[in-house]
Specification:
Layout (H helix, E strand, L loop, with lengths): L1 H12 L3 E2 H19 L9 E2 L4 E2 L1 H12 L3 E7 L5 E7 L9 H14 L4 H9 L2 H8 L22 H8 L12 H8 L2
Antiparallel strand pairs: 1-5, 2-3, 4-5
Length: 187
């Protein structure tokens, strides 16, 4: 299951993450995939649920990874006395991802993985699919990851887009030039 690989790699890159953080980073990864490759890659179906994008697929993937001994999950209480769960990787073996997916996850984790809970929530709520859901009062409905609205995307700087898209594709995906992507994101 691709969600397992994506979530495992996120946890490997940024240990001791809460489920909240894992879900938001997976969501940002999939949004970036839609922007760069034209489709999400994790297979997670996101909804506006609780404090942002979430999906039952995340719980299933975390449970599966824990059962297989690839991650450990520990209960802990936050400073605000909320019960939470911390996820850390046990396995250092990299999951099966394409080099593009690997680079993209690394970028997303590096850029967003160290934000505070409030910063990450605010950023995620400012993404076009979440803005659309909030406007429609569509809590618990599936998020449209393809929705772009009139909000500029803020995921990538010019160098990252050029690095990810500047070489030939070895997959069946349609090649998109860096210039096309830069034009779409207004860089």
């Amino acid at each position: 299951m691709k969600a397992n690989d994506i979530i495992l790699r996120i946890i490997q890159l940024r240990p001791s993450l809460t489920t909240f953080h894992v879900a938001k980073l997976a969501y940002l990864f999939d949004l970036a995939c839609v922007q760069l490759f034209g489709e999400p890659r994790s297979g997670i179906h996101y909804k506006w649920w609780h404090y942002g994008p979430y999906g039952e697929d995340i719980d299933r993937a975390i449970g599966d990874l824990e059962n297989k001994g690839k991650i450990k999950v520990e209960d802990y209480t936050t400073m605000k006395m909320r019960n939470s769960r911390l996820h850390s990787a046990v396995s250092s073996r990299k999951p099966k991802l394409t080099s593009d997916e690997e680079q993209l996850i690394e970028h997303v984790v590096k850029r967003f993985g160290f934000m505070t809970t409030a910063e990450l929530k605010n950023f995620v709520y400012s993404t076009p699919p979440m803005i659309d859901a909030q406007k429609k009062h569509a809590k618990y409905d599936s998020l449209n990851l393809y929705y772009r609205g009139d909000v500029p995307d803020a995921f990538f700087n010019t160098e990252t887009v050029r690095a990810l898209l500047g070489r030939e594709r070895k997959s069946s995906l349609k090649y998109v030039s860096a210039e096309e992507v830069l034009a779409k994101i207004g860089a």
